Fold each of these.
Amino acid sequence: MTARYETHGPVAVITLDNPPVNGLSLPTRRAITEGIARAEADAAVMAIVITGAGKAFSGGADIKEFTTPAATAEPNLPSVIAMVEGASKPVVAAVHSVAMGGGLELALGCHYRVAARSTQVALPEVKLGLVPGAGGTQRLPRVLGVETALNMIVSGEPVKAEVLAQLPGQKLFDEVVDSDVLAAAVALAGRVASLRPLPRVRDLPVKHPNPDGYFQFARNTVKAMARNLPAPARCVDCVEQSMKASFEAGLRYEREAIMALTFTPESRALRHAFFAERATSKIPDVPAGTPLRPIARVAVIGAGTMGGGIAMNFLNAGLPVVMLEQKQEALDRGVATIRKNYEAQVKKGKLKEDKYQQRMALLSTTLDYAELKDADIVIEAVFEEIGVKEAVFRRLDEVMKPGAILATNTSTLDVDRIAGFTKRPQDVIGTHFFSPANVMKLLEVVRGKATAKDVLATVMDLGRKIKKTCVVSGVCDGFIGNRMIEQYSRQAGFLLEEGCTPQQVDRAVEKFGFAMGPFRMGDLAGNDIGWAIRKRRYVEKPGMRYSKTADLLCEMGRYGQKTSAGWYDYAPGKRDALPSATVEQMIVEHRRTLGVSPRKISDDEIVHRLVYALVNEGAKIVEEGIALRASDIDMVYLTGYGFPLFRGGPMCYADTVGLFNVVQTMKRFAANPLDDADFWQPAPLLARLAAEGGSFS
Ligand code: NAI
């Protein structure tokens, strides 16, 4: 059943009942229209209430129906709302918990609205690259005014009913109540049962004292904020129509806008990311109901760059943390950094002073392993040396209580080997945070070959509690993200040898939409990190070719921002990347020793060599089962590496280009004598999908 029908005296109550959030799927929409028709036909019914069962009024359109025939099949949502609005008996919406997207639009089609104070109200379609498609852009300005409505529509952010109810002149809610919203709505329905004419939102005027000035301002703002996304600007257009056109013409305008946006690559990418995010938590052999180990106390080993940031995540979530170091000075430094980070947030008004104090009160420090014995999980973030990790894990094995989870934040070492330092490898797991760990969304959860299922499930759950996007990775060098970025960096190096400057590469990649190009990223992260990895590679894989430019750079001591010199020059204390004549000279000389005459390389070639390097390695990672699915790789790149959201991640981007085309381009790259033909051998999965006309999704 997707909606129930019952009568409370002369009031018919239609209760949406389509768990989990009463999505407005085709069967639900049918059930609403049947309910309205039944109430209309029943002479004993004087008024109608629509409400939602469970934990929502309605979360809106059923996104699983998107781009399927069911999305627009009659009765589609605009038709349902037209029927509600055109009913001959008053219809009251009893809104509670959440009224999002189509749910809010349905409420706006009702004649009266009663809301529970804490209801979250939003039109979030813009987050999927769309505009609201069932009258939201036409009705919301009529009840909240143009500016409030447009802010909600362009941001997609939820606002509490009690906040909206306080706006002067608002007509969104007739009543906002603390108590039983359904009872209040039924009572209101009884009181208004014989009042005519029925109030309709569509009949309300839309006003603004300076519409031309305001909409110009809105357009400029949106253009600056959403450079690569078409939907926000279309939201402005639609709301403007609510003022300038008739209601019917405005609806038609909105309809056309959503139809056009649905088929844009940007909307596809955003919808892909939306589903990809949800998919990350699904682990085929670890079902949803897997029992979790309770986590009430956290320990962190190492109070350096990562340890401090990791600790902050748990303090923010209200979990007590004990931090262990070898020396008091290191602890003091770590705590001071945490304080400095929180104080910066307080100064910016992002954190209240009392919250800051509460969080600091949850933090304790120690030099003594014995004090970790109560912790339910310990996360190790000490130096990246296997000997140091070994000493720490042997010690943890002695002191931690049975069942405690032992996690390592290693970025390059073998998690299975680390697990082998303990007598409880089933309790060992990798938690690969990204720097700064208190800010970055991504958490790679590294599943060792012995990791117990409940340990994995518990860490995934804990990751959600600290608001991370958790992606499961198998054990391999670099896990998902860094293993791929190594190939991307190799290509970036080859591009320098063939004729590019670092700034040309960065500019092209940033124009494509990346937050930062490879060389600016290297300077930020520290070029010495990649250098250390390459030195290892020269021994492990002597046949693998790298450009020497990055080594030459490091030999000059140019590690990046921390040495005020890297691929770029930096003024002391500044982060602005200034093109470096020294680096250009170094690259030119290096080309000379190789006997290479530089050529002009197009932005298109730069971008595709870098992105397809990611795609090809990504395909291998999926095939080897290191990633559970291609969309997990996209989430890693969207949340950890600044890949442009409007392109949906590297694998989604490859699907958009078409895998056949990707492989053809890779063949062209392979024919370049200065590139590496082996590098461009398509991964078997990619080759197969390209040949079959398939896609990663
Ligand atoms: P760091 O050098 O800033 O901090 C390491 C801390 O561990 C230092 O404070 C040191 O005093 C402490 N320490 C060393 N040996 C210890 C021991 N035996 N017992 C207790 N404390 C000890 O290093 P960072 O950058 O925080 O890295 C830590 C781990 O996180 C490494 O495994 C690294 O690969 C990994 N990682 C680092 C990332 C980064 O961007 N810095 C990103 C992701 C992972």
Amino acid sequence: MASKKLLLLPGDGIGPEAMAEVEKLIAVMNADLGAGFETERGLVGGSAYDAHGQAISEADMAKALAADAVLFGAVGGPKWDPVPYEVRPEAGLLRLRKDLALFANLRPAICYPALAASSSLKPEVVEGLDILIVRELTGGVYFGEPKEIIDLGNGQKRGIDTQVYDTFEIERISGVAFELARTRKNHVTSMEKRNVMKSGVLWNEVVTQTHKAKYADVKLDHMLADAGGMQLVRWPKQFDVIVTDNLFGDMLSDVAAMLTGSLGMLPSASLGAPDAKTGSRKALYEPVHGSAPDIAGKGIANPIAMIASFAMCLRYSFGMVAEADRLETAISAVLDEGLRTRDILSEGKTEVGTTAIGDAVVERFRALSA
Ligand code: NAD
């Protein structure tokens, strides 16, 4: 890839504080490794509303469409609670996901050995955990029509959502899961509710056909989504890649996230379809956490989720696998040294702020790259 165009959308609350730590890494990669990142900045969420009266301006949307990858901080906060629904901060993120057609949401749940004790599960159940949930993001019950509340005229109302999936949607999300599995432990578990839902029957059928046609080298298991929820908290290390629909993925990825301890540690990626000519995918990388207004501006936010999101960007948008590995090793090393932001602090560890963690990761990364 000739250039590497990154659009930075720090957003609101702790978003800009966390993004600043990634900007340090980008500068180091450009200076030391000649990585060639070209960055632009834009506004999203409440900050975009304050500047333009919109959750994201058309100019910034155009930049997002032209970029190779978008790095997104977080949006929202009480200041913008009164703004009209269509321009609420989250509308900026939804617009980005829709216009970039980001149908595949990747949520890793990695438990760093140094943090195994902060999980609500026993350390031996989560230590060394490394699973990836691939959630379908643009279809299913969150978008299916009809979607309405109707008045039945007899004092009753009826709320309707429609779970709907077409073959191509299941084919393309399972294809993403199988391809990612090939770069990991080569094992996919597909989760649906084929015992009670027609969309689950089709999901199961299409995943099985896609596997047979193109990915027979990958181990495939099917599991009912409720049983999958139980297995995730019983023995999560049995999984490698889990592929599931929008609704089950929303819930299962939050369950998996909590296995690892803190919101401040969790990255994510959302990918679109490969471009027919270049093969590259539109992509947006963001931490799972929100704008954390309760700690914004205090310099105590954990930047690791944002930094780990950048590691995913290196891996999935730019094929910089060695650099992504080094960055993840650097994060792990900083935790092993005992440096902690308040959200992951435990006895005997050293509490430091956002910039100190960011600086330590940069330093470790440079040492590993030397
Ligand atoms: P939140 O994730 O912002 O915060 C939940 C709790 O976790 C808070 O106590 C916060 O201090 C803590 N926390 C979160 N990230 C942290 C980090 N990196 N380091 C240390 N502590 C961290 O969720 P919330 O409080 O429910 O929502 C706050 C605002 O964020 C709301 O306006 C909400 O709509 C928005 N939100 C945005 C996104 C997004 O931008 N993708 C996601 C979730 C929530």
Amino acid sequence: MSHIVIQGGRKLEGTLTVQGAKNSVLPILAATILHPGRTTLRGCPHLSDVEASIRILRHLGCKADWAGEDLVVDASALDRWDVPDHLMREMRSSVVFLGAILARMGWAELSHPGGCELGPRPIDLHLSALRQLGACLREESGCICCTAQHMAGREIVLNMPSVGATENAMLAACGAEGETVLVNAAREPEIWDLQNFLCGMGCKVRGAGSSTICIQGRQPTSDSLHTVMPDRIVAATYLAAVAAAGGEVELRRVSHGHLSTVTAALHAAGCQISGGEGQVVLRSQGRLRSIGTVRTAPYPGFPTDAQAILMAALLRAKGATVFVENIFENRYRHVDELCRMGADISVADRVAVVTGVPELCGAKVRCTDLRGGAALMVAGLTAKGETRIEDIFHIQRGYEDPVRDLSALGAEIRLE
Ligand code: UD1
């Protein structure tokens, strides 16, 4: 089992190109099965979650192979409609295969994804959307069995703008007769990337980015090539790292607009930030100030996925910052680990108060989840002495090679 070891205290400087977005490519990989032919994904990040999706695709009978930086999926021979328990357990977001398998096969069997490190992760909204399209669902012994011989488009109102439920409903609706209108849909940029992908293969989808998405089902599909959008949370991680450690970074292949709440927070903390076409530059003296209250919210609000990362950047800031986590029930598990490094954080229910300390000390810490792990890297880069991060398989779910990227900026970081 490998660890990440960081010798903190170095200023960071350089240029990085941001990898493709995990949260975009996972639903897109599920969507590839809507087309009984070849799909090429360009800029697909090399991540353990992507490998888990590839295993599901191969189990279903698809071919999925890397061709350099491209991932080529051929779903023409798809002949199964089940995802077994061991593959579902590898990745919670594999539930998005449900809508895609139903649309292609009219039948699907998946084991229940269950809870995860962020607390309970119900899928009631996903299942309700599929039922409204005409799918019959039975849940028995942790298994969800769906039949959907005649799905018909209709208006579906989500009572919360869930990202996963929006994606599942979009994919299922591609196999339904007529038009589906999703109301109160999630507005995250990854939904827009999924729409672009679907349109590129011939589906008729519009409205992504707004809260109403219209899908015209049962359209003829064709082979396509899609470039995966850049990962805004990976970009946020590297911006936070340089903000906290001090220095200057130019991120390439990013969308400045997608990062606006994160860059606004880092600007308020004292960083200089400028952005151009596909590029963001951040300069920091390394000594930040607190920024009042940060509330996570669905896009375009402050992303829950950047909460731990920003918190790590502000551990040594002058003053106190309050975090309010509104999306997930249990998203402060990184706090105990950050406190091992000398951070001063108190948590009550969904609120965490971070009071800046003059110095953090390197320590042996453990990743509790993907973004919590990223937060430990950010904190380690600014801590005095050595930080040893264990259970880095969480980080590898979403970061292609953070040791390569941070070393390129001059960090003293290694895999051991
Ligand atoms: C996605 C992202 C995750 C991000 C999250 C919120 C992927 C692979 N993951 O997760 O990184 O943190 O969006 O931006 O894209 N909920 C229900 N019932 C449901 C579905 C969700 O109550 O059927 C609740 C969840 O418990 C949570 C909230 O809705 O409290 C938001 O969840 P959702 O937007 O669905 O997040 P995910 O799609 O799981």
